[in-house]
Amino acid sequence: MTKNAFAVIGRPLPKVDAWAKVVGETKYADDLFLPRMAYAKLLRSAHAHARIRSIDTSRARALPGVLAVVTAADLPRVKFGILPVSQDEEALCAEKVRMVGDPVAAVAAVDEETAEQACRLIEVDYEPLVALMSIFDSLAHPETRIHEYGDGPNVHKNVALQFGDVDAAFDAAHLVREDVFFFEGSNHLPMEQHAAVAHWASDGKLTLWSSTQTPHYVHRVLAKVLETPAAHIRVIATPVGGGFGGKTDPFSHEIVACQLSRLTGRPVKITLTREEVFYTHRGRHPVLMWIKTGFTKQGDITGCHLRTWLDGGAYGSYGVASTFYTGVINPVTYKIPVYKFEGARIFTNKPPCGPKRGHGTVQPRFALECQLDKAAEQLGLDPADMRRRIVAEPFTKTANHLTVTTIGLGECIDKAVEASGWRDKRARLRVSAGPAARRSPKKRGLGLACSAYLTGAGTAIYWNDMPHSGVLARADRGGGVTVLCGATDIGQGSDSILAYLTAEVLGIEPKDVHMHPADTSLAPVDLGSYSSRVTLMCGMAAIQAAERLRDAIFAAVARKLEVSPASLVARERKVGVPDDWDKAVSFARAVELGEALHGVLAFPGSYAPPKRAGKYKGGGVGPSPCYSYSACVVELTVDEDTGAVELEHVWIAHDIGRALNPLLVEGQVEGSVYMGIGEALMEEQVFRKTLHKLPSMLDYKSPTTLETPDIHTILVETDDPEGPFGAKEAGQGPLLPVIPAIANAIHHALGIRIDEVPITPDKILKALDLKRAGKPARVGPERLPLLTFKVPLVVESAFGEPADAVVSRPFSS
Amino acid sequence: MIRLPAFTYLAPSTIDAAARLVAEHGREAMLVAGGTDLYPNMKRRQFEPKVLVGLRGIRELRGIRGSAAGGVTIGAATTLSAVAAHRDIVRDFPALATAAGLVSSPQLRNMGTIGGNVCVDTRCNYYNQSYEWRKAIGFCMKKDGDICLVAPGSSRCWAVSSSDTAPVLWALGAKLRLVSAEGERTIPMAALYQDDGIEYLAKRPDEIVADVQLPAAVEGWRSAYLKLRRRGSFDFPVLGVAVAARMEGDVVRDARIVLGAVASQPRPSEKAAAALVGQRVTPDLIAHVADLAAGPAKPLDNTDFSHPYRKKVTRVFVARAVAAVCGLGDSGATSEEVA
Ligand SMILES: Cc1cc2nc3c(=O)[nH]c(=O)nc-3n(C[C@H](O)[C@H](O)[C@H](O)COP(=O)(O)OP(=O)(O)OC[C@H]3O[C@@H](n4cnc5c(N)ncnc54)[C@H](O)[C@@H]3O)c2cc1C
Ligand code: SF4
């Protein structure tokens, strides 16, 4: 189909839920009020690491208005965790707390004030243990173990993979660079704090409404930890007021609300405070990185070796996947014939890290793109031209056996370079315009970086052969179509996308499509809103369901009009033969004809990604149906006297495959840029003694609209064969290049390298002082942890091999 | 959500009634105007008053009266938005309009008052935390404890004066009228404060700030305010530089420099100001004045940004503010720096 043939796709329509959100009609979890509802609060640990000797809840129980108090003793002793390999969490800690903020008890009361007061009356007797607050601490104290499992004392995961002979690659290089980088952790900072309402009704069935990105996983975990048949549990994901990966795990507060409802016989609501969101966390891992890359004179990469050390926090969460993700995605962008990756995730007594927008790939992307900038400078090459030259080949395999399909990165670089005036400005800004500009403390700089991201993980979190996404499309006699899908709209617009795709196939308007998402009793499973998978996977399932519905309707209309089904089209809410459009029947009538012929019109669509996992241990993390690409140019000024950075412009070109709705894509791109700016310049989840230093929205610094520059979004369409009407992801990838582009622009402005984020003004002043003193003008990490990586699993590089079969996947016919 | 503790709210409609209620309830009572500072603090249990005497219903406390020639008087319950937008203030006391307009965010300026702003609680990031957090790290002497966590061994609290308008009002020579059940008195801004993070106000708790009186506008006075904060909105100052000077041609005749957020009260830099008087302003003089002003500033590690950084920027900002007021700055001198 050519672009012009679309009726809905490609149009800049508002989101289907836009008005409801703007006028305040949307009911978030905390907006739910049920009759007789009680309110719950968690008592959280004030110790970072301690054994629980005893808990005395008697004073709390005696407080008027308290309905129930629970500790670990009141719950089945079942541990849980999002990944089958890391079942290390407890809804309420039984024997040990592992971080400040770990939940130890909970209260349900007639109101929140009473519940809070009751929590303060619970006495917990702790035996403090040594608190390990950094990677260095945890490795230096193997005698103190945060968990008993893992790949070594306080080492959660240790991985090493090698594809080809890196030493030979470095020998063949003209230039070999080794650089060390650090990426500080950050929180997702969604506007909506996590909230849940549980109702264990008198029929013995449980319903949980929760602000979650993964109702299906929550469903499974509830059944397990509450020892209740999954058949009697219903999980409904309420509209999520921002997720970004922070609502992708099953959480203590959800389980506790259910248990308190079971005990009190009342619906129970729990809403976290902002401080508790910082403890719940699952945000960006702080990562130390060492990266060694060989280059030819022309800038080609001969090989790359990356080491990453992740500060995981107190629990596993998605950490095993995060560890792999710090290593496996970099090779998707550029020609890297030989590749070696070693990574380790270390437990510390801090809130657990997990997936945040760009999951695990943001940190090594920062390292690689800053290193490329340094190499280009040393080789005397233009950073844009150098990258342009080494862009990976479409429809081939990477060294680490990932199949790439379409690659619009070259076009992205060209367009960002052109729109930003890169060539002219890079030359002009460096020379500096006259004495006035030289006197001013404000120096201007321009920097560039690129990235790639997956459009949905190729493997599920738990091993199975079922669809990753399912959709049920049911036509009603009024001409409406109800779409049931397990996906959660977290603001990214998944409800809208499913409505557009359904409307496109059936020739109706998005308004005619009724979305009932994310309800485990009503909708087929979708694995969840993470890894940029929803548009592609649910989208493909929705298209399949809608096409099956359309075929059924066409069969009936064809019989009525006495034409062949193949001659029919559906458009403008009608079904008919284009050349004889007067005879076309209305869509509502067509549904009636269809129902008369077939009975109820309800059709499923299923999607599972192509099976392309590399045939080595660990090959399951990284494959994706297709990858999105971005190129970003940042223009900024830096004040030499204060170190203040002001962003002027961000140009970002993004290979979206196809923009199903350009407005939504631009929204995702702009949001990514904004979030990237925060991580580059100010956000840091840091600790004072054993406590989160600043767990409030005022003191944890994240940018406002005033820090957001003009963002110029350029969409590049490559029409990928794997995506719905050619679409790829937009929700995460565009964040990645922003951070290194800012670092590179600061270097361009001042000739200094800040090899760690956030790039704060004091670091800039420090680097300028070093520069004035004639020392290397770099601020960044100075030491690396002493940790022996595993002996690497050596696999042959698959670099340059032709892609695995495209558009070949389960359930496609 | 964090909840407020229970309290009784009293809403008098005259200053006298308010003064009587405060006297009657003594230590149990606190005043509240916009509540933008007090309510968040109450949620974190930094204050647990049994009674709040609200000032918002008192008409005589609101509004801006007087004239440039005779002196402008600002009712204490006037919102910061109103102060920032007032024509005479923008014209004659631009630093005050700037400072009021830089407080927090538009929403908070619509609620927050100038009286509340000059009385705003001192800040410290060991203290501006929830009850649970403070308990976990160990309470400090400003609330519930008896030591200082920033300067262990110190017998006093070093929480930081964080008002934007206070250093400016001080530099402009403003006065305050205080009313209590026992009568009223008018004091200079300087007399409102003392350098102690807990007892930062030198006035009695039962005294209500009734209004802020600006001096008659005099030909030749100019003023500027520079604020250091991380972002363009929301953030409290972690450094404020207020400079007022009277120029005759290019010679400085009078000068006042007052720093905010470097101590538990606004801190005047008399030596630095004196070095300007009688002088023609040159880049060298500015550098000298900046050293004099920044020298005594001793920021501690209890606000945003590292304290060595805040000290470095103090010098830069004093130089920039002096240059702007004395006509040496580039025409685009901004009144705010976001680092
Ligand atoms: C997110 C956030 C950001 C902020 N940012 C800034 C900032 O950038 N700069 C800044 O200066 N402030 C800031 N503030 C603090 C506050 O909003 C302002 O200082 C505001 O002007 C306070 O005025 P109010 O009327 O709301 O005071 P209230 O909260 O009502 O009172 C504050 C204190 O003053 C006392 N008080 C109030 N009125 C009187 C009176 N007439 N006489 C005697 N005592 C009185 C009260 O008893 C209380 O102790 C911020 C607050 C928040 C929550
Ligand atoms: S300066 Fe010391 S005493 Fe004062 S609030 Fe901070 S930690 Fe507490």
- Helices and strands of chain B, in order, run as EHEHEEEHHHHHHHEEEEEEEHHHE
Number of helices of chain A: 20
CATH architecture of the largest domain in chain A: 2-Layer Sandwich
- The value of Rg of chain A in angstroms is 27 Å
Which ligands appear in the coordinates? flavin-adenine dinucleotide, iron/sulfur cluster
The fourth-level CATH homologous superfamily of the domain at 221-338 in chain B is CO dehydrogenase flavoprotein, C-terminal domain
Question: What gap, in angstroms, lies between the N and C termini of chain B?
Answer: 31 Å
Q: Which pair has the most extensive contact?
A: A-B, 37 and 33 residues
Strand order of the largest sheet of chain A: 3-5-1-12-9-10-11
What is the count of distinct domains of chain A? Answer: 3
Task: Describe the oligomeric state of these chains in a short phrase.
Answer: heterodimer
Instruction: Profile the largest sheet of chain B.
Output: 5 strands, antiparallel
List keywords for this structure.
heterodimer; A: 813 residues; alpha/beta; Aldehyde Oxidoreductase, domain 3; Aldehyde Oxidoreductase, domain 4; 3 domains; 7-stranded mixed β-sheet; 20 helices; 32 strands; 24% strand; B: 339 residues; alpha+beta; Uridine Diphospho-n-acetylenolpyruvylglucosamine Reductase, domain 3; Enolase-like, domain 1; 5-stranded mixed β-sheet; 12 helices; 30% helix; binds flavin-adenine dinucleotide; binds iron/sulfur cluster
What does this structure look like?
The complex is a heterodimer of chains A (813) and B (339). By secondary structure, chain A is α/β, with parallel strands linked by helices. In chain A, 28% of the residues lie in helices and 24% in strands. Chain A folds into three domains: 37-129 and 194-271, Aldehyde Oxidoreductase, domain 3, CATH 3.90.1170.50; 363-456 and 623-789, 2-Layer Sandwich (Aldehyde Oxidoreductase, domain 4); 467-607, Aldehyde Oxidoreductase, domain 4 (2-Layer Sandwich). Chain A has a seven-stranded mixed beta sheet with strand order 3-5-1-12-9-10-11, sandwiched between helices. In chain A, a hairpin with a 5-residue loop joins strand 17 (469-475) and strand 18 (481-485). In chain A, helix 15 runs parallel beside helix 16 (534-561) and helix 16 packs across helix 17. With 339 residues, chain B is of the alpha+beta class. Chain B is built from twelve helices and 13 strands. In chain B, strand 4 (64-67) and strand 5 (71-75) form a beta hairpin. Residues 330-339 of chain B have low confidence and may be disordered. Iron/sulfur cluster (SF4) binds next to loops of chain B.
